[in-house]
Amino acid sequence: MPFAPSKKKRRKPGIVLATLTLTSLMDMMTIILIFLLKSFSAEGDILAVDPKLKLPVSTSREAPKMKLIIQLSTDDIIVDGLKVAEVKNAGSSQDLLIKPVYDALMKNTKRIEFIGRENPSLKFAGEVVIQGDRRISFDLLKKIMYSCGQAGYGNISLAVMYSE
């Protein structure tokens, strides 16, 4: 007969003694965390384009920067996410300056200048991105650009979809 187990090693049938080792779980979580941090892209899409907008196509490869966004759909003019005017009212006017757009831009300028007084690293640069539907008229685009210039936004960029 083989050796009989000692009294300490004897267990009652049906009771299983198991321990969980956290070392391997911590290694696995560390590997997953490193993988996610390495695969995270800091240069994701900066511009969120409204599904109603159909942007013009271009071969430009310049990456966009964070700026104030003006969206021109076939119905509305939206400045920084807020609807400020309707295209039919702005387009029918003979004046180049669109007053609601100008007012919204000036309000944003005052806000940035107020923040700039508290935080010197943030300065007003006069940069704006226009996301214009490809079906809008050039006259409307010209009025928007003129309104931007009058409000001190001289650095105007046009958002386009990349195509080769």
Order of helices and strands: HEEEEHHEHEE
Determine the strand fraction and express it as a percent band.
15-25%
**CA(first)-CA(last) distance:** 82 Å
What class do helices, strands and sheet pairing give? alpha/beta
Helix content class: 25-40%
User: Tally the helices: what do you get?
Assistant: 4
What does this molecule look like?
It is built from four helices and seven strands. It is an alpha/beta fold and 164 residues long. Helix 3 (99-118) runs parallel beside helix 4. The mean pLDDT is 81. Helices cover 35% and strands 17% of the residues. The strands form two sheets. A five-stranded mixed β-sheet has the order 4-3-2-5-6.
Please write out the topology.
Blueprint: H1 22-39, E1 57-58, E2 68-72, E3 76-79, E4 82-86, H2 87-92, H3 99-118, E5 127-132, H4 138-150, E6 155-158, E7 161-162
Parallel strand pairs: 1-7, 2-5, 5-6
Antiparallel strand pairs: 2-3, 3-4
Helix pairs in contact: 3-4
Entry summary:
This protein is α/β, with parallel strands linked by helices.
List keywords for this structure.
alpha/beta; single chain; 164 residues; 4 helices; 5-stranded mixed β-sheet
